[in-house]
């Protein structure tokens, strides 16, 4: 039986010990989970050609503690979720800081030796509806708590998830603050503006979203979400995922369409973008081959929240986001699961993206291009004392013909992760 301990020690995270009353209901304790993830992260981005810095390169150790209670008994159940995080510098210098693994002093560019934070959310359950208020880690097309660095991005706010209607899941929420991946402070929410796409330094105290997913059939799920960052932008997302057996394998089709426009006073400037992406993949035995295409129209780049990544066709790329104004992106991807060769836990991936028709007159002109060649190898230990120990190495070769003033510049990037989760 998994337990939510009466006293949860957080001393290792620099947080006072939290003691709970022994009078909590059985379900509150018995349905709880406690886990500690250790994450060792090395990031090396070696810039090529003209660049104000030659490289950013850092190594850090992270600890992510999660304690999620069950719910008390009765018509309305109550619970508590706790997230404690600690990041520790292993190697960095002012000449090569700025990987977003660690907070840094903007004047000296010296990274902090350590940083920590504690997040708490109070939750309630009624029938098949769940409400949470406090620290949030959403994972939706219109808002995602980015997990792409040492510690995940978090938001402060309230969220509701309801599954009262069969095959339909409704999600709604309001966020007023964000805690970035390399920060310990909650701050107002901003629109991402790499490559000078929108007016910088503009923030909002309100991000709302509403939508859901409907399982039309066993093989098809439809998705829709509406979101708005008050007085900056609003966005509609429509998507669908379909999977069907074809011959000895399966074909998976996914469509993602985002319609973004400015909202209210448009404090970050004009927002006008339609992003449509389609991916097709065929999986047989350990092989999966995928192709994709993303097409953008409108006068501006794609709109998404600062501090994370856009959940579009290019999701998962390391050195750029491929959502510049009017950009068209082609994708080729091959994945292999070595369980087909008798090596469970070992996976590999090769991916190629090429973006064309980029319209950035201030950064090189029109009809610009960019490309990324990505390699990945990962292994998760399947049994024994080190079960669930995960190794992941990624490398990307990114090139574009934008000017040296662009946020995304030619580079060779390597990331190495070693993660281990202990469940209590």
Structure description:
The chain is an all-beta fold. It has 1 helix and 23 strands. The chain has one helix at 26-30; strands spanning 7-8, 18-19, 33-47, 55-68, 76-91, 114-126, 129-136, 154-162, 168-179, 186-187, 189-190, 203-204, 207-217, 220-229, 233-246, 249-262, 272-284, 287-297, 328-337, 346-360, 365-380, 390-400, 411-423. The strands form 3 sheets. It has an 18-stranded antiparallel beta barrel. It has a two-stranded antiparallel sheet with strand order 1-2. A two-stranded antiparallel ribbon has the order 11-12.
Give the low-confidence spans.
1-23
Strand and helix order: EEHEEEEEEEEEEEEEEEEEEEEE
Distance between the termini: 10 Å
Judging from the principal axes of the Cα atoms, what is the shape?
A: globular
């Amino acid at each position: 039986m998994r337990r939510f301990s009466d006293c949860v020690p957080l001393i290792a995270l620099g947080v006072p010990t939290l003691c709970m009353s022994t009078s909590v209901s059985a379900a509150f304790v018995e349905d709880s989970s406690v886990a500690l993830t250790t994450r060792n992260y090395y990031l090396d981005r070696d810039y090529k050609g003209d660049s104000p810095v030659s490289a950013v390169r850092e190594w850090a150790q992270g600890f992510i503690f999660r304690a999620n209670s069950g719910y008390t008994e009765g018509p309305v159940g109550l619970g508590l979720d706790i997230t404690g995080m600690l990041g520790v510098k292993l190697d960095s210098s002012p000449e090569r800081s700025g990987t977003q693994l660690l907070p840094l002093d903007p004047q000296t560019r010296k990274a902090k030796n350590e940083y920590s934070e504690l997040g708490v959310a109070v939750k309630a359950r009624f029938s098949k509806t769940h409400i949470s208020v406090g620290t949030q880690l959403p994972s939706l097309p219109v808002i995602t708590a980015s997990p792409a660095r040492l510690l995940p991005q978090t938001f402060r706010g309230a969220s509701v998830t309801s599954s009262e209607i069969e095959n339909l899941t409704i999600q709604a929420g309001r966020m007023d603050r964000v805690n970035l991946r390399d920060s310990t402070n909650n701050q107002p929410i901003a629109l991402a503006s790499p490559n000078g796409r929108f007016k910088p330094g503009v923030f909002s105290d309100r991000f709302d979203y509403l939508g859901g997913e409907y399982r039309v059939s066993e093989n098809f799920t439809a998705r829709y979400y509406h979101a708005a960052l008050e007085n900056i932008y609003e966005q509609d997302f429509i998507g669908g995922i379909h999977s069907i057996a074809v011959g000895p394998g399966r074909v998976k089709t996914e469509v993602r369409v985002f319609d973004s426009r400015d909202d209210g006073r448009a404090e970050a400037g004009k927002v006008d973008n339609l992003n449509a992406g389609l991916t097709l993949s065929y999986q047989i035995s350990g092989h999966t081959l995928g192709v994709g295409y993303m097409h953008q129209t409108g006068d501006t780049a794609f709109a998404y929240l600062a501090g994370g990544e856009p959940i579009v066709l290019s999701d998962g790329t390391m050195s750029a986001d491929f959502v510049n104004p009017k950009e068209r992106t082609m994708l080729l991807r091959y994945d292999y699961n070595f369980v087909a060769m008798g090596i469970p836990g070992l996976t590999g991936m090769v991916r190629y993206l090429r973006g064309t028709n980029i319209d950035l007159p201030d950064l090189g002109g029109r009809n610009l291009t960019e490309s990324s060649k990505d390699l990945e190898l990962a292994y998760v230990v399947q049994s024994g004392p080190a079960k669930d120990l995960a190794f992941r190495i990624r490398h990307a070769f990114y090139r574009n013909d934008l000017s040296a003033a662009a946020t995304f510049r030619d580079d060779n990037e390597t990331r190495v992760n070693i993660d281990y989760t202990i469940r209590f």
